[in-house]
């Protein structure tokens, strides 16, 4: 018998949906709430490394993800010169196993829809447009009041509600994300035939210029700059700013730039980071994913670490007969150091770039790949 009979999951992103699916499949009654009005997700594209694909296969959605996304096994490094010269082509480690691609690019809302549909098919009660308004614990029960005036009592509450997590604050964990000094322009556009993997340009007016194929006809492209207040720009001004910043990058970027015509496809986000340094639970409430740890996307491990959190937590809750301190100690032992190492490596890359220091980028990437190829 599982350690819990009924669970509330707050947040319908990758971590929340994954935890809900696995627990429901294991016989637990699961409610999942999300403050958004529907399944659509912010952002343009997402890069999924092999260890993320391993969990998606565990969730039973790998065939759909493979059909929607774009898989590749190499990473290109290019120079910010007039030809966009290819400097190196690196073979990525297949961190999810030899039978899965090293990397998959995907349209983020497509992944969200796949996961939420899978949750519904598994029996999860999904409620959009709903947020928690109050939370109290009494022994082995957690009572939650919702924004629609209803209440529910649960054996466990899982906060997978992102960087600005309501759940994290509600249980008194003081670990707010902090800026790291960089911001990223992203766009979602047509895929030129020449783009068949991620290439990274280091140097020039941006710290990083890159792109990732997300489907047969689509890519997302991005430019990382020193963080600025871009909030006052109109959509048209944002598009013009991204196009101007991209002028220094060539090769496939020349084709990509010609497709950048839709202001609604451009967004800007400042990089932030944090890790809860210690147990991620208080009583019968636990936070996972971006609520527990976040990092700049320099290693493309954000979604992977969130999915690993969900997989390990569900494994322990379905394996054990009760929620004990031993269960929480094992969860902390399996997740805290691993997530912290990934976050620190992601931050090290940003520190090298901000200092214009030539660090061992391939070596750092290889070290993290070898870490995460072992299941969490």
Protein architecture, described:
By secondary structure, this protein is α+β, with helices and mostly antiparallel strands. It folds into two domains: 6-70 and 107-176 and 274-372, FAD/NAD(P)-binding domain (3-Layer(bba) Sandwich), CATH 3.50.50.60; 178-271, D-Amino Acid Oxidase, Chain A, domain 2 (2-Layer Sandwich), CATH 3.30.9. Helix content is 34%, strand content 30%. It contains ten helices and 20 strands. The chain has helices spanning 14-25, 50-58, 62-68, 108-121, 166-170, 235-246, 252-259, 302-319, 325-354, 361-372, and strands at 6-10, 29-34, 45-49, 70-72, 74-78, 86-91, 103-107, 125-128, 132-138, 141-146, 151-154, 156-159, 178-190, 198-202, 208-215, 218-226, 266-275, 281-282, 285-287, 293-294. The strands form four sheets. An eight-stranded mixed β-sheet has the order 6-5-14-15-16-13-17-20. Strands 8-2-1-12-19-18 form a six-stranded mixed β-sheet. Strand 15 and strand 16 form a beta hairpin. Helix 1 runs parallel beside helix 4 (108-121). The longest helix has 30 residues, at 325-354. The protein is globular, with a radius of gyration of 21 Å. The relative contact order is 0.18. The model has no long low-confidence stretch (mean pLDDT 96).
